[in-house]
Amino acid sequence: MGWGWQRWLTVFSHPAALLTIALIAIHQSIIASSSYFLTMLIELFQQGGNYRHYLYLYLGAMLIPYLPGCLSFISLQRWINRAHQGFTYGVAQTAYGLTEKFRDSMVREQVESIVSRNSFITIKEYLSFVHGFLGFVLNSVLSMLVLGLLLPGNLLTGYFLSVTLCAGFILLVNRAISTRSAEIENRFISYSDSLSSIWENTTLGNKLNYKNWAFQNWHLGENYYKGSNDLQSLKQCGNLVLAAAALGPTIYLVLRAVEDNSAQPALVAAIIVNLTRVFHILNSLSSLVNQLLEWPSMNARLKVMFRAEELLLSEADIPARPLSEVTLNGQPISDYESVAISLKHVQQGRFTIRGGNGSGKSTLLLVLKKFFGESAIMLPAHHGRLRWDSSNADLSTGQRTLQQISEIVRGNDIRVLLFDEWDANLDQSNREAVNQLLDEISSKLVVIEIRH
After folding, report:
1. Angle at 313 between CA 308 and CA 318, to 5 degrees
2. What is the distance between the alpha carbons of residues 302 and 315, in angstroms, rounded to a whole number?
3. Which stretches within 14-150 are classed as H helix?
4. What are phi and psi of 93, to 5 degrees?
5. pLDDT band at 297 (very low <50, low <70, confident <90, very high)
6. Distance of CA 111 to the CA centre of its chain
7. How large is the average pLDDT for residues 348-368?
8. pLDDT digits (tens, 9 = 90+) for 101-123
9. Separation of alpha carbons 256 and 294, rounded Å
């Protein structure tokens, strides 16, 4: 799946996004007007005219921007939260019902890493970057247009020459930065996945596991750190070139205008009065183009984040038949599809799947879950992370299993129950209790189970 407009909608299609952009525009427009008010204030003061209203306007232009500026950050946080929520539920909806992907450990680890550890940080940094980027763009463009009305036209020419030089350089390095950024983001996901297994590999005190984890973690960490250092060096070398391109033309034109013996004194005074503002704008341009260098990097990170959906939608190779003998109620099965069809119209009963390790018993359950869809519910062998209505943290494993089964059959439109070795970690008394409950349920529903 490509980087389409649907992805952009996930990030930008929120009311908070429009409000944030509007607040940034108001904020920067008021700031840009301050240059005009200050220039007119000084001009009227020098001429002995009534400058008070420009003084009030200037002071207001310095004070009022704080309100839309602060509000834009509040709106930005709402935007970040909504975008993250949209992404999370988008991945969840894409993943829902993809039982063929359930046992793909590589996809699982990457999707869980992206969604639980990387997505919020990536979206927050990306939208914070957009917030700052829009501020710099509007600050530079609006301020320079105002000064263009007040100062010689050649300064405005110098500014746009700087912009052109910077844009040309960015086009040259954009692809290299984007490619390296995507590579480094993938390295970070691998490193973060390794870091997430710190608990098991340290607290048990198993020397072998700790040694292997530490070696792998060090290797992945060094790989990520080196790549991020190299990328930052590339960006800052580019930043030096961009700073020269941003400042050089205007500095040259300012010096020419001031040293020109035929220049009007009022013109020279206006240039000097606005020099601070001119260089503030040029510094904003320098910061802006520096952020333009970051833009491909930020986009690359966002694309890697959306790779979670691509991993989920990639084709999965599901075997059509068991790898070795698998039986259903003692009868050998030849292929999975025939089992699903034979159970299609069954209304109740208990069916037990048996077979050796790696024979394909769990795959059969997944095929049946896919076949029956939402009319079936499946409890894998390791289902401790499934969420339930009631809290069962203080219950034993057997009590928890009984409670979960009772919740499944209570008030749910479920016709088929699929259990993968429910008896694996139960003591004798709990095993008997669960077995009796399943016997009762199988008189009304279909129970399909894998047993030792």
Report:
1. 120
2. 23
3. 15-47, 52-63, 66-95, 105-112, 119-150
4. -70, -35
5. confident
6. 11
7. 90
8. 888 888 888 888 888 878 888 89
9. 34
